[in-house]
Amino acid sequence: MQNFKQSLIEFWKDEEGLTTVEYAIAGSLVGAAVVTAFTDLGGAVGDVIDGITTDIGGTPTP
Q1: Could you count the other beta carbons within 10 Å of the beta carbon of residue 1?
Q2: Per-residue pLDDT at 62
Q3: pLDDT of the residue at 33
Q4: Are 53 and 59 in contact (CB under 8 A)?
Q5: Distances (CA, A) of 7 to 2, 3, 17, 20
Q6: How far apart are CA 32 and CA 35, in angstroms?
Q7: Cα–Cα distance measured from residue 2 to residue 9, given in angstroms and rounded to the nearest whole number
Q8: Which top-rank group of organisms is this from (predicted)?
Q9: Is the CB of residue 60 less than 8 Å from the CB of residue 50?
Q10: DSSP secondary structure string, 1-62?
Q11: How many angstroms separate the CA atoms of 3 and 29, rounded?
Q12: Percentage of the chain with pLDDT > 90?
């Protein structure tokens, strides 16, 4: 029983896996922010291009 308890204590103190999890969470948050930014930016760029096309007398894309 003492061996199991000692193993459990060592496992609890081991922080090597925590770094990997922290990087995975941070990477996921950055990825979500990039997707959100490019989605919003893509719509804005499309609106500007449609406005320019209309101003020069063309037909905007659907």
Answers
A1: 5
A2: 65
A3: 94
A4: yes
A5: 9, 6, 16, 21
A6: 5
A7: 11
A8: Bacteria
A9: yes
A10: -HHHHHHHHHHHH--HHHHHHHHHHHHHHHHHHHHHHHHHHHHHHHHHHHHHHHHTT-----
A11: 39
A12: 19
Contact 47, 61 (CB under 8 A): no
Distances (CA, A) of 11 to 2, 23, 24, 45, 53: 14, 20, 20, 51, 63
Which amino acid would we find at residue 6?
Q
Mean residue pLDDT across the chain: 83
Query: 25 falls in which pLDDT band (50, 70, 90)?
Result: very high
Give residue 32's pLDDT: 95
pTM over 0.90: no
**Token digits of residue 29:** 């948050």
